[in-house]
Write a structure and sequence with these properties.
By secondary structure, the chain is an all-alpha fold. Helices cover about 55% and strands about 0% of the residues. The longest helix is centred in the middle third of the chain and has 21 residues. The radius of gyration is 15 Å and the shape is globular.
Length: about 150
């Protein structure tokens, strides 16, 4: 594994679980979650030479995730005109998604489960979040789940 690959994984590791939570909430189909994550991962790695060291890697990487999710969701627009909802029993599920760049990457202990945000709020609020357009929901989730600043989101 070369230094660039190692550096990319080092930057990715602290945000991986919040990225996964974001993808799970943004994807219209649960079947697309891992594909979206891997597409974003591969596209970001291909463009890693454009990342400016010292800038916000989290905000940079979430751009790739958002675009990958939008593209995957576009495929479903022809099938359905409304978003598929996440079942409440799956919201708190926090299983790591494997990815091909580093199968042996050990998971750090999770002190706070990002999905618990939606699991612990009132059903009415959860339904309101689901009714948001995909772009508005992505902004909300980037703030609530990924904890990005409004400047980073823009």
């Amino acid at each position: 594994m070369d230094k660039q690959h190692q550096h990319f994984l080092k930057l990715l590791k602290p945000i991986e679980l919040s990225v996964q939570a974001y993808v799970r909430h943004l994807a219209w189909s649960r079947n697309d979650v891992e594909d979206i994550f891997q597409t974003a991962l591969l596209n970001a790695f291909k463009k890693f030479d454009t990342y400016e060291e010292g800038t916000n890697f989290k905000a940079w990487f979430f751009q790739f995730v958002t675009y990958a999710a939008f593209n995957a969701n576009r495929k479903h627009e022809k099938i359905s005109s409304h978003e598929l909802s996440v079942e409440p029993e799956h919201v708190a599920e926090a299983r790591p998604i494997g990815f091909s760049l580093e199968q042996n990457l050990k998971q750090e202990e999770i002190l706070k489960d990002p999905d618990s945000i939606l699991a612990n709020i009132d059903e009415e609020i959860r339904q309101a979040i689901r009714r948001l357009s995909i772009r508005r929901r992505s902004v909300f989730l980037l703030k609530a789940v990924a904890d990005l600043s409004y400047i980073e989101i823009s």
